[in-house]
């Protein structure tokens, strides 16, 4: 009888241990999903553009929190990549001068570092490069000349390849995002005379 009771107790212990193990695995899986959802579109790379306000600092989506961010993936050494990045910088400069909270980051790869000056020449936005085995390119699923637009919460709103051209309405898209992400408050109120005034007939 003692042997039977001992065996039964062991079975109960094994059962509960298995249940605990399953719950731990489930919690770890949930943690993995949460980490993936918040970390996939995040990075921290040094800004190597001496013309940029953030030169020498580690930048990324969270660095420019509460701003619309554009992330352009390209090759330092290719003419088309450089041309598109220059066009994006023109739009970026115009939006910044108009007071809009927007940032542009160009992301390349360490293997193309010899062409860095192609991107820094005349451009004021942040420029970074990923290191082998290029985890940021992989985690974003980026291809050459892909442009990602993130809203102020860090969510991807748009992903498009700009090899053929930059969208003609890109600045309008960004301004529209800013107006929906932030509450628009009038700078001033003006009360004007209503004419004709039925309470003050002329």
Could you give the topology of this structure?
Elements lengths: L1 H38 L5 E2 L11 E2 L8 E6 L5 H19 L4 E8 L6 H5 L5 E5 L4 H6 L5 E5 L5 E6 L8 H12 L21
Parallel strand pairs: 3-4, 4-5
Antiparallel strand pairs: 1-2, 3-6, 6-7
Question: Can you walk through the features of this model?
Answer:
40% of the residues lie in helices and 17% in strands. The protein is α/β, with parallel strands linked by helices. The chain contains five helices and seven strands, in the order H-E-E-E-H-E-H-E-H-E-E-H. Mean pLDDT is 82; it is low at 1-6, 31-38 and 183-195.
Shape: elongated
Order of helices and strands: HEEEHEHEHEEH
Question: Would you count the extended β strands for me?
Answer: 7
Let me know the average pLDDT: 82
Strand order in space, largest sheet: 5-4-3-6-7
Poorly predicted residue ranges: 1-6, 31-38, 183-195
The percent of residues in helical segments reads 25-40%
How many strands, what sense, and barrel or not for the largest sheet? Answer: 5 strands, mixed
Classification by helices and strands:
alpha/beta
Number of helices: 5
Distance between the termini: 112 Å
Gyration radius (Cα, Å) is 27 Å
Strand content: 15-25%
